Structure formats: structure tokens, C-alpha cells
Amino acid sequence: MKILISLWAEARKQKSLALLEPFRYNVNALAQSVATFTLFTLQQILSDINGACESALIKKIDMKELIVMVDALMNELIANSNQDPNPLLIENDKPFDMLESKDNTKTAGKQARKPYIVIVDDEKSSGMAVAALIGEFNFQVDYFDSIKAFNKAAETKQPDLVLLDIMMPETSSEQVFDYASKLTQRGVKVVSYSSLFSLEMRLAAVRAGVLDFIVKPMSILGIIEKINRVLHLQKTRAYRVIFVDDQESMGEFYQTLLEEADCEVYYSSSVEDMFNKVDDFYPDLFLLDMNMPDVNGLEVAKIIRQQKLFDFTPIVFLTADEQLETKLAALNCGADDVISKSTPPMLVVKQLITRLGRALAVKDFVSKDALTGVLNHGQIMEAALNSYRLSRRQESDASIAMLDIDHFKLVNDTFGHSAGDKVLSGLGQLLGRSLRTTDYIGRYGGEEFLLVFVGATPSDALVKLNQIRLAFSEMDFEAKGRRFKCTFSAGIVDLAGNSSLPHAINEADQALYASKEGGRNQVKIFSS
């Protein structure tokens, strides 16, 4: 909150659109960090601030009007933060209740704003074809055959992302990259879209602020993956850091700094306490002191590295010992980095955030199913087992669901396996956008998915899955010049109250079978 106030005060004082972008970036970062929780009023305020900033960046409103709008919204945030408890931070006790709308028949797929994608490509046939395919993945897409044509439309509506062809008639590549630079300055994300693959072009793209590079031809699934990555459409949550340091003043200081950087931090001065907490907290990074009473930080690192669960979790030492031998010993024990305590604190935080981003990207790559974007079989089973143990230990709710696409073999036989891949990918995208970041989604095998609903009863899960089922049944797919729709069936079981994970999966399978036998396109809760 302090960061937002500071950034807005500076942008307001200077009346600068350039300073507006970092403020808007942090507003979006905060919005993503609270997306895990059902804080609807807070999310709406942040959304309104972002919308006002976007309007100013595309010059629909002037700075004077923007200041009036954002001042009112920031004052609302500040006023609520001074109350105890903060009313904006009180969660809805029904985590799966959807925001009420005027039309209660709207499905989950229609309630969220579709990201707006623009394709600028002089090759009309391929450009329009790609636009149509992207549109099938729940994006709003427009196609333009020139920068000039796009410019006219951009006066009234700003896209989230532009796929920009580099080589176009009567426009040099230098002019294209100059235009890309102007788009990025307005807050529009740009991806180069070309058949050229040269270092010179890539370097020019990077210098223009282009975020990614698509080489023609690329499969539609590859394009969607890049769009999702650039727009950060995969569900995100706050980074989790466990920090162990016997100096409480040091621990509290860095805990505060990391929390201001939107990290969730568990600090402890005790190694034993840390290991008791680690299964419940499931950190993304361990931050350790090197020398502590009764235990050596190097020994702690070795214990962490013995657990397969944390193979991809970075271990970073924050130490006053700057000897080369100490750093080498830390690396030999499985640490990823050693940072001196004499390093400026904000630089320490920057290094940790960078390390977290890279580590989670690697973990994401090895844990996700390439086609659907959800967890692979091994990872979803591990997540389900951890959720089962946690629910039993904390006596909390948890449910799992087995989901299977109806008549999937018929889709493959009629339209081909590429059409089947499109259906699987579409369902994976929908599930990823519809569930909370605290839940888990994985491809169990073939056309089967396993879902883990953390903190939810089977009845809660039933409501949510039925919303997703309706949304999926309305999705259009196209293959061989024909359009078709698909449905899925699912079975839900109480995970927390079950005797074991395999037993729970077996019961979810039985409930799924009952849904199939009952006519498909339905969800049932297991009943003995």
C-alpha cells in the first residue's frame, strides 16, 4: 500500500504519463496477489484504478480528470486501511460464490473480461485465420492489414497485446520497431510476428521493448502459450518465502521488505520451527542465515535437498561471512545463491524476486502438461497427496473431482487428433482461468483431469464445477470447416474425510461413472 501511495503521489505531482505506468504496474501486481482471496470490493477498486489509468494512457481522459478519479479511489483504500479490521480484507465465507450480476444466467466463461488481442499483418489470409483461431480460446481478437488501419481503431480502444508483423509493404522494419516502442510506452504489450529469425531482428525487437518473438509458421497452441505468458494469464499468487535467522531484528526487517514486495513470508528464529511449518507453508524459496546457534545453515540446506518436494525450490543464504570458501561450501550443499548482509536491502529484495521468478518458471515448465497447460500426472498426484495430508492435519475441508470429456474418441475419429488437442487445450485454459490459485488442476491421463479443491466441501466444488461445465458446453471448436461443441462429466468426493488418496480417487471415479451412466454432461457427488 505504501508503494502505491508513493508512486501515485509522484505521478500526480509531476502530472506524468511516464510515471503513471509503474503505478499501474503495481496496481496490477496487487490485484494479482489478492486474486487468491474472495475480496471482491478490493478487487473492484483496483480494477477501477487500472481502468482509469488505461483511459489516460490512450488519451480518452486528460490528466486532470484522471487525478480526480484516482484520488477518490486511493482515498477509499486509505480510509479502509485505517479501520481495524480493514473491511476490504474480510473474505467472503463462501469461496465459490460468483459475483452477482444483472443476468444470473451468465456462465463462468462470460463473467471475466476477455483479453483483447490485435493482429497487424499484411498477409490477410493467414492473419485472419490466426485471428479466428485465437478467438476460439476465449480472447477478443481484431485483425488489421496495416499499422495505419490499426491506428484508427486504437484511438477508441486500447488492446492488451499486439502481434505485430515486422515486414510489411511501404513500411521499413525500423518504422515498425519505432511504432512498437510507442505502443509499449502506452502500456500495450507487443509480440513480434514474422517469418524472419535473425539476431539483428531479435536485437531490434528487444531494444523496442518487444516482449516475445513468434516465428511464422507457429502452431496455434504455441501462439496461445506465448500470449498467456506475456499477459500473465496463468493464475498467479504471492511468492512464498521461509526466512530463518536467529537475529529477530534482521528477520523482522527483511520480512517487512519482502511483504511490501508482495511476498508472503514466514519468519522464524528456529530451524526446528521452520521444518514443522514447511509442509503447511510450501515455500517457493528458502532464505537462510549461515551461522545459527546449535545448527549450521549448510546442514539445513542439505536436509532440504534430501526432500524431493523441494528439488526446484531455491535456497539462498544471507550471511555476513563473505569468504570465498564459505560461498563455495554453500553451493556444494545445494544452495543457489549467497548474498552478503552488507548488500543494500532493496538490492537483496530485487535479487530474491528475480530468483523466485526464474525458479518458478523452471518449475512451471517441468511440472505442466505441454498441451493443456495444467499440471502433469506426477505433479497433480503429488499436489493431491499434500492436500490430503494437510486437510487431515488441520482438520480442514478439501475435495477432489475426476473429470472426463464426453465422446472424446468420436471427436478424434470425426475431426482428427488435432481437433482433439484443441478441445483438451481449450478445457485446460478454461479450468485454469475459472479456479482459484489455491486449487490444483492436472491432466490425469488422456482426456481425464483431476481437480483438487482446497478448503472446499463437495457441495462447494459441485457449484463451481457446474458453472465451468456450462461454460465449456458453450465453447465453439472448429475443424475441417465444421463447428462443434463438447461437454464433460465429473465425479466429486470428500478428500478430507477419506481414508486415503487412492481410495478417494476410486470413489471420484465411481461418481464420474455415475455421471456418464446418467446421460453425461453432468456432475455428481459420490454416494455409497
From TrEMBL:
Record keywords, A-Z: Nucleotidyltransferase, Phosphoprotein, Transferase
Keyword Nucleotidyltransferase: yes
Essential cofactor(s): Mg(2+)
Entry-linked Gene3D superfamilies: 3.30.70.270, 3.40.50.2300
An annotated Gene Ontology molecular function: diguanylate cyclase activity
Assigned EC number: 2.7.7.65
Catalysis: reaction(s): 2 GTP = 3',3'-c-di-GMP + 2 diphosphate
GO biological processes: cell adhesion involved in single-species biofilm formation; negative regulation of bacterial-type flagellum-dependent cell motility; phosphorelay signal transduction system
Domain GGDEF: 396-528
CDD domains noted in UniProt: GGDEF, REC
A cellular component annotation (GO) from this entry: plasma membrane
Identification of the protein by name: diguanylate cyclase
Organism in which the protein naturally occurs: Brumicola blandensis
